Amino acid sequence: MELFKKARQSQWYGVVFLLVVTILVWALFKIACPGTFGSPEQMLTYLQTGIIYAVGGCGLYFIVVMGLWDFSIGAVLVLSCLLSIGCSQTMGVFGLIVAPILCGALLGAANGLAYIKLRIPSLIVTVGLSLIYESLSVFASDWAGTRLDDAYKMFGSYPWNLILAVLAFALCAFILKYTKLGTYVNAIGANEATAKNMGVDVDKYKFLAFVLCSMFVGIMAILYIGYGTAQTPMTGMLSQSLNFKPLMGTFFGLALKKYGHPVAAIIIGEFIISMMFAGFVALGMPVTINNVVTGATLLAIVCITTKRVKGAVVK
Q1: C or N: which end of the chain has fewer Cβ atoms within 10 Å?
Q2: How confident is the model over 292-302, as pLDDT tens digits?
Q3: Domain 44-295: assigned CATH number
């Protein structure tokens, strides 16, 4: 028992715990469907999918750790993908990479500015703005089409997708550990009033967090369009369905942030979710089972990570 307590105090406990869960999930589905799940080639495919959403999850972490929400990231992703397609046709690889990141930064700035100036809940602000971004995606698709040219699909497969993702993960980890922004977003999330009393410019760092969040979604768009090769506009709030897979990775990071490795938790968490999706499909379940897994996993993680206060009013 004493050894177990010491292990839980280790900074690597969270990462080791998730790796054990990863092995258990793999073993469970491998036993259930040995011929259609878990081969080395398939594991690389699961990882390929997982790192795409993990990049978006890293961006969302800056927002959610402060108790805010950004429900526009699906619309930002779609618009960034379409602009990436268009700019790759005119500026080559430079346009493919820079356009979605710049688009994400500008839309993130719009989100942050609207939230700070309007003083209404971030969920309402970002849902409203997502409708605008969805409309803009229709114009973007009319301008440049919806399919990425074969010459620019390098970020949809190894090694370029892994290189870009690792750079994004390293950037996120660096910001969280070595910059004021990383320190202050955690401080604001822990107690906003205390952070403000200590002289932290809360509005400034919330604004920067929104910008960073959407910038990471722009990086995610490079991987997403490279892997899928095509993106159609999504209107009528259909883009909301793209919010939840990155959000699951973010919740993994929040659940294990006390061990000091939220980025690693996000990556491994997304890999686990990717394996679970593939495992249920291998069992013959319909693809719509993904929605069931997504919903159930989100509820489970929120229940685990939420601190319940007896007598508190649940809003």
Answers
A1: C
A2: 776 777 677 66
A3: 1.10.3470.10
